């Protein structure tokens, strides 16, 4: 992927746009836990050769990259939408809400937003929605890494609060282990009741 991942940011910078925020969410598919979104403004000339789609990285490599992104970015934030919001609003609306909160949490107001898939309503900033944006934009890829690391850490914490479900391993996704635990133990307060919890007693 290399330098191609930085092309959109370079094109916007050539137009005089300084503060470009990448925004992405993680956690749409799990049966448990909140959805998280990252927002990142990278500095001009920023380059990390290892920066790729967060799903292609090992957990250790993701954590190391997250530290570098947080140290070198001009601004970063993680926004959340709760399980209750997911159940009350639906996952698509909750995902946009988490992304809006991430943008609002930035210490610098962006001049342009590159966002994965969605247009974000209620934000009066020029936006470019990109399908598979974490494969097309370094800023979006960086945002996805921060969101993924933050959400994984939260699910590991929940693993200690709700033992027996394996949250530290599957992070709430619908694995065979997770469904077996649901069938045996029933749902926890962090399970999404609007999702189909097959086998729940």
Describe the SSE topology:
Blueprint: H1 7-14, E1 20-26, E2 35-41, H2 59-72, E3 75-81, H3 83-89, H4 91-104, E4 112-116, E5 127-130, H5 138-161, H6 167-170, H7 176-185
Parallel strand pairs: 1-4, 4-5
Antiparallel strand pairs: 1-2, 2-3
Helix pairs in contact: 2-5, 3-4
Written overview of the protein:
This protein is of the alpha/beta class and 201 residues long. The protein has a single domain, classed as Ribonuclease H-like superfamily/Ribonuclease H (Nucleotidyltransferase, domain 5, 2-Layer Sandwich). 40% of the residues lie in helices and 15% in strands. The chain contains seven helices and five strands. The protein has helices at residues 7-14, 59-72, 83-89, 91-104, 138-161, 167-170, 176-185, and strands spanning 20-26, 35-41, 75-81, 112-116, 127-130. Strands 3-2-1-4-5 form a five-stranded mixed beta sheet. A hairpin with an 8-residue loop joins strand 1 (20-26) and strand 2. Helix 2 crosses helix 5 and helix 3 (83-89) packs across helix 4. The longest helix has 24 residues, at 138-161. The mean pLDDT is 93.
């Amino acid at each position: 992927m290399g330098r191609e991942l930085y092309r959109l940011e370079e094109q916007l910078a050539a137009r005089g746009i300084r503060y470009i925020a990448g925004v992405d969410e993680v956690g749409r598919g799990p049966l448990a836990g909140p959805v998280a979104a990252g927002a990142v403004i990278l500095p001009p000339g920023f380059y990390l050769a290892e920066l790729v789609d967060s799903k292609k990285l090992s957990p250790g490599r993701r954590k190391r990259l997250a530290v570098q992104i947080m140290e070198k970015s001009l601004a970063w934030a993680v926004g959340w939408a709760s399980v209750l919001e997911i159940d009350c609003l639906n996952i698509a609306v909750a995902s946009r809400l988490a992304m809006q909160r991430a943008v609002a949490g930035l210490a610098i107001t962006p001049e342009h937003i590159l966002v994965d898939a969605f247009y974000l309503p209620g934000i009066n900033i020029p936006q470019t929605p990109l399908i598979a944006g974490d494969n097309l934009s370094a800023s979006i890829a960086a945002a996805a890494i921060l969101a993924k690391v933050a959400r994984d850490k939260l699910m590991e914490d929940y693993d200690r609060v709700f033992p027996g479900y394996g949250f530290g391993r599957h992070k709430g996704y619908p694995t065979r282990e997770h469904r077996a635990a649901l069938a045996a133990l029933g749902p926890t307060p962090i399970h999404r009741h609007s999702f189909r919890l097959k086998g729940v007693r």
